[in-house]
Design goal:
alpha+beta; six-stranded antiparallel sheet; single chain
Length: 335
């Protein structure tokens, strides 16, 4: 009898727990579906925000570009370019520019926001989490671009050339420091850099005794490094993969020969006007050359490459001015 009673007790307990596993599975399925829906929605939100940030960045940079090229730009112009780039950076071609702020001098701020491509609302719809009675979500991004005209720059090449040497045709040209005539066709009928001062071979005096970099400042004289050979600290630079690299080259407005004498040898000075972006493709100097296509004659020395405009890496420059001077323009995002 005791054994029977004990068996009856076990059977009753089993009957009372029947169906508990089904309830637990149902609850867990609901939790898993909710977590999965939130994960998918979060991914969609991040993707949307990335598009909007690209749109804001592009709109701010484009707005700064057009505003810096003229005496000023209208609000309508800035709004139009920001709206265009906002849509171009959206997969559905529809984004909203909340505002374009021109209130800070020499800055453009663009704010973008979501536009639903189906109903035109400002919220993301068709979110899985809506099944859990969550509200629609609005996503936005903001970017600010600034421009300035630097007055002080640092070049890894201690060279300087006259502005007529740089031809803006997208093709490579040679610019000479010694030998031959004009390095570029635009200097025809004018004195190219290598013929302005006897003994002045376009090399500037590097900042340090063992380095190659030179600091030049707009409106200031830069002293020459006399002779045709490159400064001793530059051999390693030219031998370390300079081909294909775009560098900033100081451009001089006039020389000490134009202002006073004597102006030969180590007394040569150049008045710096701006910087030119130059993609180096070859060179020929005493003791160090890279001229695979033989563009230089026996007596010629200089650089070979492509002028890419009056700009360079913003990190090379300090002392920015907001006054347009025809100099390179530094344009970039600040936030």
């Amino acid at each position: 009898m005791r054994t029977f009673a004990r068996l009856t007790s076990v059977t009753e307990n089993q009957d009372s727990e029947r169906g508990a596993a089904g309830v637990l599975v149902a609850v867990m399925m609901l939790v898993l579906i909710g977590v999965g829906a939130i994960a998918v929605d979060v991914g969609q939100i991040y993707a949307e925000r990335a598009e909007l940030q690209n749109a804001a960045d592009a709109g701010a940079l484009a707005g700064a570009q057009i505003c810096s090229e003229t005496a000023g730009c209208t609000q309508a112009d800035a709004n139009a370019v920001a709206a265009l780039l906002a849509n171009q950076n959206s997969k559905d071609g529809v984004s909203r520019v909340r505002f374009v702020d021109l209130s800070v001098p020499f800055e453009v701020t663009v704010s973008t926001a979501t536009v639903n491509g189906t109903n035109g609302s400002g919220f993301l719809s068709k979110l899985f989490a809506n099944a859990l009675d969550t509200p629609d979500i609005g996503v936005g991004a903001t970017a600010t671009a600034k421009w300035e005209f630097p007055t002080r720059g640092r070049s890894i090449l201690p060279l300087t050339f006259a502005p007529c040497e740089f031809i803006d045709d997208g093709l490579p040209h040679k610019i000479l420091t010694q030998g031959g005539g004009a390095g570029a066709v635009d200097c025809t009928g004018r004195n190219p850099s290598n013929q302005i001062i006897p003994g002045g071979f376009a090399w500037l005096d590097p900042d340090g005794s063992t380095g190659c970099e030179v600091t030049a400042e707009v409106g200031q004289w830069s002293k020459t490094s006399a002779g045709a050979a490159m400064p001793s600290g530059c051999d390693a630079l030219f031998s370390s993969g300079l081909v294909g690299q775009t560098v900033a080259i100081p451009v001089f407005k006039y020389t000490c020969k134009d202002m006073f004498s004597p102006c030969t040898g180590s007394n040569v000075k150049y008045m710096i006007e701006k910087w030119a972006g130059f993609e180096v493709q070859g060179w020929k100097f005493p003791g160090n050359s890279h001229d695979p296509t033989n563009v230089f004659t026996t007596s010629q020395k200089g650089l070979y490459g492509t002028f890419v405009g009056y700009f360079a890496d913003p990190s090379l420059f300090t002392g920015g001015s907001t006054a347009p001077t025809g100099n390179i323009k530094i344009l970039g995002l600040i936030k």
